[in-house]
Design a protein that fits this description.
216 residues; 22% helix; 7-stranded mixed beta sheet; Nucleoside Triphosphate Pyrophosphohydrolase; alpha+beta; 4-stranded mixed beta sheet; 6 helices
């Protein structure tokens, strides 16, 4: 890891604004769900991103990463509406799009991705029945991962560097590039397996940490 850091181009959080510019019209929304499950307590649910885009047959951006439910904001759609729609589409729960138990909550913040997409994040509250009904849309999602929130409640994400695939970076580079972002490792509720949230997911987790600390 130290050798890789020594040879990589490192983009700090402070330097992101100079190296990464928001592209007008390229907007997305993501959701950080909260779900209370009888066996595991309070969890969030995230997605393991597919490596191949099932819609186009091409490579998925951030292929194989753990990411939040989310996607592009469509014309005439608010970011919060887009966040809920993407949640329902990627979990095959489209029939719950107008379900009052699927509630979009507070705005978590805004993040500019390495490719220049402006991402708005939102809390969401889901019923426990989501666990039994949700299934990954395999065109975009390999699996759904339920992560316990105890670690996030008690410890804020900390900045760490992460390698970003050159195909997902806005500018051209001849060197490996690592971007600094808030980072947290959470544990899968069913297995205890660690999963690392970084980038947009890590940033939204850092904002969620603050709000979770304020809740009973």
């Amino acid at each position: 890891m130290e050798n890789e850091l020594s040879t990589a181009l490192l983009i700090s959080l402070e330097d992101r604004g100079r190296r990464v510019q928001a592209i007008p019209g390229r907007t997305a929304a993501v959701v950080f769900p909260i779900i209370d499950l009888p066996d595991w307590g309070r969890c969030t649910v995230v997605t393991l991103r597919a490596k191949t885009n099932g819609h186009t047959g091409g490579r998925m951006s951030h292929a194989g990463d753990v990411v939040l439910f989310g996607g592009s904001v469509e014309a005439g759609e608010s970011p919060s509406d887009a966040a809920l729609r993407e949640l329902c589409e990627e979990s095959n729960t489209d029939d719950h799009l107008t379900d009052p138990e699927y509630r979009i909550g507070d705005h978590l913040g805004r993040w500019i991705t390495e490719s220049g997409i402006t991402v708005d994040g939102f809390f969401a509250t889901l019923p426990a029945t989501f666990y039994d009904e949700a299934r990954p849309d395999t065109r975009e999602v390999d699996r759904l991962v339920y992560l316990g929130l105890d670690e996030l409640t008690h410890r804020a994400p900390e900045p760490q560097y992460h390698r970003v695939d050159e195909r997902d970076i806005q500018f051209e580079t001849r060197r490996p590039v690592q971007f600094e972002s808030p980072t947290v490792t959470l544990f899968e509720a069913s297995t205890g397996e660690p999963w690392t949230l970084w980038g947009a997911a890590g940033f939204m987790a850092s904002r969620a940490h603050r709000m979770l600390r304020q809740q009973p």
